[in-house]
Design a protein that fits this description.
Blueprint: E1 6-10, E2 20-22, E3 25-27, H1 41-50, E4 53-60, H2 71-85, E5 89-93, H3 109-118, E6 126-129, H4 132-141, E7 144-148, E8 163-165
Parallel strand pairs: 1-4, 1-6, 4-5, 6-7, 7-8
Antiparallel strand pairs: 2-3
Length: 176
């Protein structure tokens, strides 16, 4: 019997890099100049890889369908993030809500696709996010969810199961 991998799924904006906050709402950077990476992320990812976790970034990028972000800029940003984090893979949903796709968080499609590709046991995996959509995707995929509080204006997280932390380095304090 093949043993399945464990993974840490990371949302991109607000977790790997700073979200651009306007009127209390988080937005993605539109180019490399706007990309500001969190300094502690590579250290945490190295720690998790040493524990045997696969590292997968899962990100909604609807700005592509909204035509407010160019594909070449998204590609450049994602390549820089992959190099910076040394993540194993990245899954991107470029759809908007109206497309009703299975990959856009809060739906678990990206996590399920990654689980198939990387032979991941979702029930022994985690998702780290800063929005209710990330936590809901993790809950639907049966992952453990870690919510990093960023003080955005948003719906309250209710009836969802998650571990709340304030800084990414607090992941080291969680019994994995």
């Amino acid at each position: 019997m093949v043993e399945l991998n464990r993974a840490f799924f990371f949302d991109r904006d607000g977790i790997i890099n700073r979200a651009i906050v306007r009127n209390g709402k988080p937005y993605s950077p539109k180019n490399l100049k706007e990309l500001k990476l969190y300094k502690k992320v590579p250290e945490i990812i190295k720690y998790l890889k040493n524990l045997g976790f696969k590292i997968i970034i899962v990100t909604n990028q609807p700005e592509i369908s909204r035509k407010s972000l160019k594909k070449k800029d998204l590609f450049s940003i994602n390549q820089k993030i992959l190099k910076y984090t040394n993540a194993d893979d990245m899954f991107v949903c470029v759809h908007d809500d109206q497309h009703n796709c299975s990959c856009r968080k809060p739906k678990p499609g990206m996590l399920i696709k990654a689980a198939k590709k990387w032979k991941i046991n979702l029930e022994k995996s985690y998702i780290v996010g800063d929005r209710d959509k990330d936590i809901e995707a993790g809950n639907q995929a049966k992952c453990k969810s870690i919510y990093i509080f960023r003080n955005y204006k948003r719906d309250k997280l209710t009836k969802k199961y998650y571990i709340k932390i304030n800084k990414i380095e607090q992941i080291k304090q969680i019994k994995l």
